[in-house]
Amino acid sequence: MSKKNIITIDGPSGVGKSTVSRKVAAATGFTYLDTGAMYRAVGLYLKRYGVDLDSKEDIASAMNTLDLLLIPAVNDQSDVGVFINGEDVSNTIRTPEMAMIASHVSAVPLVREILTEIQRGYGGKGKIVAEGRDIGTVVFPDALHKFFLDATPEERARRRVEQLQKNGVVANLQQILKQTLERDKNDRNRAVAPLRQAEDALLIDTTEITLEAVVLRILGEIVPKDGQ
Ligand code: DC
Fold first, then answer.
1. In the chain, what are the domain boundaries?
2. For the whole prediction, is pTM greater than 0.85?
3. What distance in Å separates the CA atoms of residue 22 and residue 75, rounded to the nearest whole number?
4. For ligand 1, atom 18, which residue shows the shortest CA distance?
């Protein structure tokens, strides 16, 4: 299998994937693909229309009318632009509530099937940094550079609160820790494409190192492989 020039960064919520991915994308010139944003946008859309998540037909017809657009971030400080049917939902999807909804919606096989196809479309030409839960295992098993970030739930909750506060969202540490543990459970135990480390991914425990150090570690791994 010839490998694609794609960097995959998987791991549980709050581990720092977005920050790290954006910086790796900026350093390599690759395009950053935030697949979590796609699940959040679909979660918002299905919730708005009161779609029954147990009905394959209802989901299929709702997904048929969804026009999902991602605009790459302009620099390593900004988020991707997310639009559903022309409406800018980039900020609306960044709340703890939307994260929980995304975690539920992402267990629906049809939703995963559709989003996986869209993600593969973005990665067709390579040169992307894609972050999520199943990128190295399912979406791009043929990626050249795979990483799996991990950290304790307590540290991830602490980082999440910090990030939310930076975005002006009021957050309670105990509540975020509870949600972090619940999302971990959902994401690791679902039947389709659960969160797990690809066998050929490099594990980086970020609990006690800065995200800048993680970025340097990743860039250090990428350069020698590219020169092969
Ligand atoms: O990375 P995030 O917090 O924005 O992701 C929101 C939810 O979407 C997360 O709880 C699980 C789901 N997700 C997924 O199942 N697969 C992905 N590739 C990305 C996100």
1. 4-221
2. yes
3. 8
4. 132
